[in-house]
Predict the 3D structure of the following.
Amino acid sequence: MDAFQYKNYDHCIVNLIASIQKFYHVNPSHSTLSIADQIFLKKDFKNVIVMVFDGMGQNILDYHLKDQDFLKKHQYTTIHSVIPSTTAAATTSYLSGLTPIETGWLGWSLYMEELDKNVDIFSSVDSLTKEYVGIDCGETYLPYISIGKQITQQNPDVKYYEFWPSFKKDGCKNLRQLQKRLLKVCKKNEKKFIYVYWDQPDHDIHDYGTKDAIVHKHIQNINKFCEKMAKRTKDTVAFISADHGLVDVAPILLYTYYELMACLTRLPSLDSRCTSFSVKKGYDKRFVNLFHQYFDGKFILLSKKEVLKKEIFGVGRQHKLASSILGDYIAFAVDKYFFATTPNFHPFKGHHAGLLKEEMLIPFISFDN
């Protein structure tokens, strides 16, 4: 079976955004998503909303909801996440309309050659010490033109709004507050595009696993939230999906594989289920042999050259920093394991960024009125 069978850059996040670009007369960055195009043909909607619920993959939805629940009844199809199926890569694709290879947002922890550090790209802290590196690495090294800016530049009469959880300044404390703010904006007599990001169920799946009761409650609450939004809005189309799904996982203590770690020039980066390795000169053969000896069946190892040739991280123009970020080899998870690269790793019960169906398939849900 092809480990990369769920790689699909014609039926994924960027194609949904391409349809939105098309609706607003912005030149689409990629091919459009036909089902979204058909929905847009219904009318010239005043409000267009994209809601991204972090980690709400198809598997999570299927496990925690019944067929008669609102989200299931309003699901049109299943689409694909990008590779790696992780928040830094996927939400940036939502916000830019570009694939990870185009944005350079290729994982949670990225090697910044100019700083010679692995950096947690969202917070710009050193991935090892967690100290701020002194510069916003995303804005400085990996900037992109947001979908909001693309739309408003092309359409001066359209307003753009973003809604986030409370980890951002003035973010929403809960779904009730989000609903109140969102409804207020939707009632404004203006055309608008709205991007909504919510950090559940992903946040708690990491700690409790995919099937825990607390996750069930999150999905039930999200279902109710979306149903209320559909009832209380007018002249609105909403597209509801996720950035990725998750699977229940177990750690591999990579830092204890001393012979393999001795082959590396620096700590691995990207993500713990899609992991980049930079190898010392002359150690390639040893590294590859050891990796296969230890991890065959759990991870697939490809050279950077193979990854780029196969367009694993997306189609389009390669970002100028992508080559240095990717290192020499990339390992892709095809089983339940994640790499713990240092002793002070987080004991995840659920994770993502690998190639499994559960991580890669996300629901395409929509309501309009």
